[in-house]
Amino acid sequence: MTVFSIILQKADDAVSVPLIYIEVFFLMLSSFLIGYFFAYFAQKSKYLKKLKFLKKRSDLSETEEELLFDDTEEDLEEFVVAENEEQPYRSKSKPKSGALDFERIGTADPDEADDLQKIIGIGPYTEEKLNTIGIYTFEQISRFNESDIELITELIQFFPDRIKNDQWVSKAKMLSESKRRSQARREGPRMKRA
Q1: Per-residue pLDDT tens for 55-108?
Q2: CB atoms within 10 A of CB 73
C-alpha cells in the first residue's frame, strides 16, 4: 500500500483505491458536465434564434391571420408545408433572383461530365446536385463569378462561403488546364521512330 491511496473499509475487509483513479473519475465527470451544459445552452440559443426568426417572418396580413385561426390543424399543417416549399432555403445574404448565365459559363451534356469529386469539397451528393443544375465540367466551374457562387450556394443548399473557402474556381481551372494538356498530347502530331 502506498501513501497516495485511500482505504475504504467495509466490515473486516479493506479495499484500497489508488488516488489517481479518483482524480481521473472527477476529471471525467467534470468534463462530461461541462460538455453537457455547453451543448444544452448551445441548443437552447439555436432554438431561441429560430423562434425569433419565425416571429419576424410571421408578419402576416390580417386576412392571413384570420385564415390561420379559422382552419383546423390539418389545414394549418398544409399551409406551413406550402409556405416552406415556396422558400426552401434562405441564405444570410440577400436572396438572388435570376438564373445562372449558361451563355457565359457554358453548357455541357452528361456525356461530357468530368469527375467533379476531384475538387476538394465536392462529394457525391454535391456532385449530383451540381449535375441537376446543369454543371458537369471543370470548365463550367472555372468560369464562376461571385454572383454565380452565391446563386449556386442557394440552389444546392450548401454552406455559405464554402465554395470560396474550398477554392473551387481555382482548382477547377487547374484541372481543366491539365485536361486540355492531356487531350492535346493524345491528339497532337506523333513522331515516327526511325
Answers
A1: 776 655 444 545 444 444 444 455 445 544 444 443 333 334 457 788 888 888
A2: 7
Distance (Å, whole) CA 60 – CA 63: 8
In this structure, of 3-7, 67-71, 121-125, 130-134, the range with the lowest mean pLDDT score is: 67-71
DSSP symbols for 18-51: EHHHHHHHHHHHHHHHHHHHHHHHHHHHHHHHHH
Rg (CA), the chain: 30
Q: 93 to each of 106, 150, 161, how far by Cα in Å?
A: 26, 9, 11
Q: What is the pTM of this model?
A: 0.47
What is the rounded distance in angstroms from the CA atom of residue 19 to the CA atom of residue 8?
A: 12
At residue 127, φ and ψ (nearest 5 deg) are -60, -40
Q: Nearest 10 degrees: CA dihedral of 87, 89, 92, 96? A: -70
Neighbours of 166 (CB within 10 A): 16
